[in-house]
Amino acid sequence: MAAMNEPLFPANTAAAPHMTQPRRPLVTLEAARAKVGPVPGVPSPCISVCEMDEATSSCKGCFRTLAEISQWGRMADADKLVLWQLIEARQAPVVAP
C-alpha cells in the first residue's frame, strides 16, 4: 500500500525523458492478411489509428497519404500491392549517409 504522502498511481511518465513509449508493431501486408484470414483481394492497411502526421503528410497508423486512402477502394489489387510495398518502405528507419 502507498504511504499517505505517495500517490496511489504514479504521475504521467510519458513525457519523462528517461521513459520511452513502446513501439507499435510495423504495418505489414503479412500481418493484415493474418488478421482478416483467407479472403479474396488485398487487405486494407488501416489499423484504426487515423491521425495525419503533418511532417510526412501520411497517416500515423497506416502510413498512407489522404489521396491513397481515398483511392484505396477503387484501386486494382496489383496497385494495392505496390502501395503496400511503399507503406512498408515508409516505416523503415532512415539511415544517415
Largest sheet: 2 strands, antiparallel
- End-to-end Cα distance: 52 Å
Number of helices: 3
Q: Going across the biggest sheet, name each strand in turn.
A: 1-2
Give the low-pLDDT segments.
6-22
Average pLDDT confidence is: 80
Global shape = globular
Task: Summarize the amount of helix as a percent range.
Answer: 25-40%
Structural class: mainly alpha
Percentage of residues in strands: under 5%
Q: What is the N-to-C succession of helices and strands?
A: HEEHH
Instruction: Please count the beta strands (DSSP E, at least 2 residues each).
Output: 2
Rg estimate, integer Å = 19 Å
What are the main properties of this structure?
mainly alpha, two-stranded antiparallel ribbon, 3 helices
